Amino acid sequence: MPVEERELFIDDLPKDFMEVNFGPHHPSTHGVFRFIANVDGEKIISAEPVVGYLHRGIEKIAENRTYIQFKPLVDRLDYTGALNNELCYCLTLEKMMEIEVPERAQAIRVICAELNRIAAHLIFFGAMGLETGAFTPFLYGFLDRESILRLLEMLAGGRLTFNYITVGGVRRDIPAEFAPGFDKFRKEFPVKLKRFAELLTGNEIFRNRTKNVGILYKEDLLNWGASGPTLRGSGVRFDIRKVEPYSGYEKYDFEIPVGTNGDVYDRYIVRMEEMRQSLRIVEQAVDSIPAGDWTTKVPKVLRPPEGEIYYRNEGTKGEIGFYLVSRGDKNPYRLKIRTPSFCHISMLNFALSGNYIADAIVILGSFDTVMGSCDR
Amino acid sequence: MVWWIELLWALLKLVIAVMFIFITALILIWMLRKVMGHMQYRRGPRHHGPHGIWQTIFDAIKLLGKEDIIPNGVDRWTFIAAPIIIFVPTLTIFAFLPFAEKIVATNIEISLFFILAVMGISAISLLMAGWGSNNKYSLLGGLRGAAQMMSYEIPMVIAAMGVVLMAGSMNLTEIVRAQTKIWYAVPQAVGFFIFFTASLAEINSTPFDMPEAESEIVAGFNIEYSGFRFAAFFLAEFVNLFIVCALAALLFLGGWQPFENPVYGTIIFLVKTYALIFFAMWVRSTFPRFRIDQFMDFGWKVLLPLSLANLFITAVIVLVVDRLRGV
Hints:
The structure holds two protein chains of two kinds. By secondary structure, chain A is mainly alpha-helical. Chain A has helices at 3-6, 58-63, 67-75, 82-97, 103-131, 136-156, 178-201, 204-210, 218-224, 228-232, 240-243, 264-287, 340-346, 348-352, 357-367, 371-375, and strands at residues 18-22, 34-40, 43-50, 165-166, 169-170, 307-314, 319-326, 334-338. In chain A, strands 1-2-3 form a three-stranded antiparallel β-sheet. Chain B has one domain. Chain B is mostly helical. Chain B starts with a helix and ends with a helix.
C-alpha cells in the first residue's frame, strides 16, 4: 500500500485521550479517594491514584502519645473492622512485653474480631451491589450488619469504634444477654446468606458484570503486596490466621476459601464464603468459651523494652501489621502501620488499565479498600 | 360554534392533559419510593399526609423554587433547550394515547406508528444535555443514552409490528378492539417480552440505566442540571415510564378490554398500566446494571434477531390463516 494512502487510516492518527477525574467526591470511590483516568472512549488507558485526603498523621501522633492513649486511634484506621486493628495493636504490645493473655480473653477477642469481620464483609456485599448498580443489596447488607452491631454493642458498648480490646485482655466480660442474642443471630444468618446468594450472586447480570473482569494473577498480586481476600481470590491459600495463628485461632476448625480465576467474581465469592467460616469460628468460640479472667494485670504505664517488632494479623481487608520501634519510653519511638488498602490502591493503574469505566469501578470495589486505613 | 369557544375548549383540554401528566408523574415518583422502600425493608416517605403522599408534591415545589443555575462554560442554548425538548415527545404522545373506547384526544389511523416515531426524539434531548453540559461525565452519559435508545428502538418497533400484523391496523383503538377474543400477550408472548425489555431500555430504567449510572458516571447527562430543569428530566423519566407501560398494556394486555364503558374501561386500563409499572419498579429494585458493551450485545445479538424471527413467524401464520379463511 502506498504511503500517502496509508496515512488516511484513522487508526494511525495520533489519539487524544480524555482525562476524567474520579473523586474525591465520586459516589463509588469508598470515601475520599481520587483517581485520574485517561480514557479512550469508555476504555481506561491509565489510571493514577491520588491518596491522602483522609490523612490524619496517625503514625506521627503515635510518637507523642503513650501506648494506651494511642489505642483508640487504631480503631480509626480501618473503621469497618476496628476490632481487628485493636487486636493486632494489642498483640504487638503483648508480644513485645511478654504479657500472657488469659484463655477466656483470647476467646472473647476471637469472637469480636470475627463478628467484626462479618460486619465488614457485609458492607462489601452492599457496596458491590451499589457498584454494579443494584441498590437493594446495600440496604440488605446494612440491615444484617445492624444485628451484628447490636451484638458488639452488648460486648463493647460501641458500634463503630470500640476501644474494647486492651493490652492484657478485654475491657469487660461477656454480658449475660450476649448468648441468647447470638443464638438468634446464628439461626438467622445462614438464611440471610442464602438470600444474598439468590439476590445478587445468582443474578445473571451480576455474573456477567463480574466474571472474567479484572483478572489478576497471583504472581502479580504477590509482587504488589496484596493480601487478604484480594490475594485469596487469585488462588493463594494464605491466611495469617492459619499460617501464624494468634489469639488461639489454631484451636478452631475453619477453612480458607480461595478463588481460581482471580476475577472480581472470585474475590466476591471468597468474601461471601469467609462470612460463613467466620460464623463457624464464632460459634465454636462461644460454645467452648473457657472460664476464667477476661484480663490480666498489666502495669499502669506501658514501657516496652528497647527493641523493634513487626507483628501482623489478618484484618478484614488483608494483612494489617504494626512495626514498632521502642526505646523503652512510655511512647513509641516510631510506629509504622502496614495496611492492606494502601497496597491494593497502589496497584490501581496495573489493575485498571485496559478495562472499561464501568468495570474499573467494580474492580476498585472488589479490593474493598477503606481510605481511613490507606491514608492513615 | 364561535371561534373563541373552540379555542377555550382546546386550551382546557391542554390544561387537563398537562395536569394529568404532572399528577401521574408525582404519583409514580411516590409509588417508586414506596415500592422500593418496602422491598428494601424500609418504609419510604411517611411524614406528609397519609403514607407520605404529599412528599413528592413538596419535593416538586422545592425543586421549582430553587435557584436556576446555568454553569459557566456550558453551551447555553443547548443546555436550556434539552429539558424542554425531552417534554415534547412526552406531551405529544399523550394526545394519541387512547384510555378507553372513544376516550382519546386525537384519533388518527397510524397512531401507533406516530407514537413510536415521536419517542425517538428524546434521544436528541439526552445527547443535547450531555453535549451542552460541557462535563465529561455528562458527555459519556449522553452518548451512552443516544446509542442505547437508537439500538433498542429497532427491536421495540419490530416487536410491535407483530401485533400490527395480527390486528391488521396501526390504530391503537383498532388494535385494542381486535383483542376481544384473546390478549396478544398470549400469541405474541415473545413479542411482549421483547417490547417490554426494549421499552425499559428506551426509558433508561434499571437494568438499563447506563446513561445515569451513578456509580460510574455519577449522574450522567443530568449531572449539571438543578432546580426546575432537573425536575423536567426527572418528571419526563416517570411520564415515559407511564407511556411505555400504557403502550404495552394497549398492545399486549388488551387495553380496556373487556369493558366497552368508558369509565370502567379507563379504570381497567389504568390498573393494567400500573401493574406493568409495578413490575418495572420491581425489576428496578432487584437487578444490577448491565455494562454498556454487554448491553449492546444483548440488543443487537439477542433482541433484534429474536424480534425479526418473531415478526417472520407471525407473518407466515397470519398469511396462512388468512388464506385458509379466504378459501
